[in-house]
């Protein structure tokens, strides 16, 4: 499954590096992208418990989730 969340206090590259380093410690989560301008983080996870663990870790780091922009099953790749 994939989620896109908007974070509070995500202002610079060092914040994103800290988040990236700490989230890599959580098994079954893969970071897809950071959008510093919109303070958004996209990530892939395998289990709803992992999603909850990511949200808990973001809050612990001082970057709690402001809003979940998208959460759901992976979209299939479109072929032409």
Summarize the SSE layout with pairings.
Layout: E1 2-7, H1 13-23, E2 29-35, E3 40-45, H2 48-60, E4 65-72
Antiparallel strand pairs: 1-3, 1-4, 2-3
Report the major sheet.
4 strands, antiparallel
Task: Say how many strands there are.
Answer: 4
Specify the CATH class: Alpha Beta
In helices, the fraction of residues equals: 25-40%
Report low-confidence residues grouped into runs of 5 or more. 76-80
* N-to-C series of helices and strands: EHEEHE
Number of helices: 2
Specify the structural class: alpha+beta
Q: What's the architecture, going by CATH?
A: 2-Layer Sandwich
Q: How many structural domains in the coordinates?
A: 1
CATH fold description: Alpha-Beta Plaits
- For the termini, the CA-CA separation is 24 Å
Can you give the mean pLDDT?
A: 87
Indicate the radius of gyration in whole angstroms: 12 Å
Protein name: HMA domain-containing protein
Tell me what the structure shows.
This is HMA domain-containing protein. The structure is a single chain. The chain is α+β, with helices and mostly antiparallel strands and 80 residues long. The protein has one domain (2-72): 2-Layer Sandwich (Alpha-Beta Plaits). The protein has 2 helices and 4 strands, in the order βαββαβ. Strands 2-3-1-4 form a 4-stranded antiparallel β-sheet, with helices on one face.
């Amino acid at each position: 499954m994939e989620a896109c969340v908007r974070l509070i206090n995500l202002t610079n590259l060092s914040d994103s590096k800290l988040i990236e380093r700490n989230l890599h410690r959580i098994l079954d989560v893969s970071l897809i992208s950071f959008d510093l301008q919109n303070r958004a983080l996209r990530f892939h996870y395998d289990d709803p418990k992992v999603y909850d663990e990511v949200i808990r870790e973001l809050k612990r780091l001082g970057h709690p989730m402001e809003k979940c922009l998208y959460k759901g099953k992976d979209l299939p790749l479109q072929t032409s």
